[in-house]
From TrEMBL:
GO MF terms held by the record: acyltransferase activity, transferring groups other than amino-acyl groups
Alphabetically ordered keywords of this record: Acyltransferase, Membrane, Transferase, Transmembrane, Transmembrane helix
One Pfam family per UniProt: Acyl_transf_3
Name the record gives this protein: Acyltransferase
Annotated TM spans: 56-78, 98-119, 139-159, 171-190, 196-216, 228-247, 262-280, 292-317, 323-343
Gene Ontology CC terms, in alphabetical order: membrane
GO biological process, one term: polysaccharide biosynthetic process
Domain named Acyltransferase: residues: 19-342
Length: 366
């Protein structure tokens, strides 16, 4: 059992490891999975109908990505460790994090389409179009959005460091004006579905939390645990109530919660939940720290990229309908576990040089 734990939780014994982070990823990808299974009409129980709610799970991924990346980069600027070695490793790791598995997923989807199991990629010509981030069909829409943010993030941090001197009031003003500007743009222009600019306010919530955590560490650590737990629980309840099927039954009204005016509210709610999971001491920290959720979060990228293929497979296999969702999760988690162990985990160890000699790696584990 201990060996199994070390395979999927290599940082388990590190004192400052933020365990709930993996659980948050697990919830994010489960929302996506339940949305897509609900759309196909298969459920663990009909009450768990999350149809048309998958994007809200992806918003959590965006908040978490910005939080982790920008916290790391802020520390690098503060300690003046922004040397060539660091940036080489930064971009190498971002590339290796996304592209090998992304390419494999595209090939798998195309390969199965040849045999009549069509999901996303119907032509091999779609593969290069996705790889250059020109297309983002179906589940792949989030890849160009997030990958382009990897390039935008260092520029934002440079501006905050060089010109705003990490003044949180000025940074907050920039964020508010940016969010308002993008909201106006989204109302008046049709920004591309795969435009990072369209979803930038979501990322900025994670960015602001990370910067506040770095520069106001004592303030954040001194947060009243009961208050942050309470706010986190209210935020979680608000998100659950906004599930279309729940909202319609409660309020007898339909609202398109995937519309752009809800990007920032959802991001803020996820931000409060993130803070409660890390700094609280109640039910959310316990929930997101559950080992099953953390396991799902660990393999979440593979799960996200390949689950539509397995969903299509279980929908065409002859079996009782009530068994389909169980087979779907078994196939998806089984394959994704292998993908994580054989591809993701080995690639995560690759460095240009030993970057840890420049920057204490434990600063980025929290």
């Amino acid at each position: 059992m201990k060996n199994l734990v070390s395979l999927f939780f290599p940082h388990e014994d590190k004192k400052d490891y933020f365990k709930s982070l993996d659980g948050l990823r697990g919830v994010a990808v489960l929302i996506v999975l339940l949305s897509h299974t609900s759309h196909e009409g298969i459920f663990f129980h009909p009450i768990l109908n999350f149809d048309f709610f998958g994007k809200i799970g992806v918003y959590l991924f965006f908040v978490l990505s910005a939080y982790l990346l920008d916290r790391q980069i802020a520390l690098v600027f503060i300690e003046k460790e922004f040397n060539k070695e660091y940036w080489k490793n930064y971009f190498l790791r971002r590339f290796l994090r996304i592209y090998p598995l992304f390419f494999l997923a595209l090939v798998f989807h195309w390969f199965f389409s040849v045999f009549g199991i069509s999901t996303v990629i119907d032509s091999w010509m779609d593969i290069p179009a996705h790889l250059i981030l020109y297309l983002g069909e179906s589940i792949f829409w989030s890849i160009p959005v997030e990958f382009k943010y990897y390039f935008l993030s260092p520029l934002l941090m440079l501006i905050f460091h060089k010109y705003l001197k990490w003044d949180l009031k000025k940074i907050m003003l920039v964020f508010v004006l940016t969010a308002l500007g993008i909201l106006i743009l989204n109302y008046n222009l049709v920004l591309s579905r795969i435009s990072t600019l369209r979803y930038l306010p979501i990322f900025l919530v994670g960015t602001f939390i990370s910067i506040t955590e770095v520069f106001k560490a004592k303030n954040i650590q001194g947060i009243n645990k009961r208050k942050i737990d309470f706010i986190g629980i209210l935020s979680f309840v608000a998100i659950i109530i906004s599930v279309p099927q729940f909202y319609e039954k409660i309020f007898l009204n339909k609202v398109n919660f995937q519309s752009h005016q809800f990007y920032l509210p959802y991001a803020i709610l996820w931000g409060f939940i993130l803070l409660a999971a890390k700094y609280g001491d109640g039910v959310l920290k316990f929930f997101f720290g559950l080992r099953l959720l953390r396991f799902i979060g660990t393999i979440s990228f593979s799960v996200y990229l390949f689950h539509m293929l397995f969903l299509k497979i279980v929908m065409i296999i002859e079996m009782p309908d009530y068994l389909r969702i169980y087979f779907f999760f078994i196939l998806t988690f089984g394959f994704s576990s292998l993908s994580y162990l054989l591809i993701e985990k080995p690639l995560s160890r690759i460095r240009v040089n030993n970057i840890s000699k420049y920057i204490p790696i434990n600063k980025f584990i929290k």
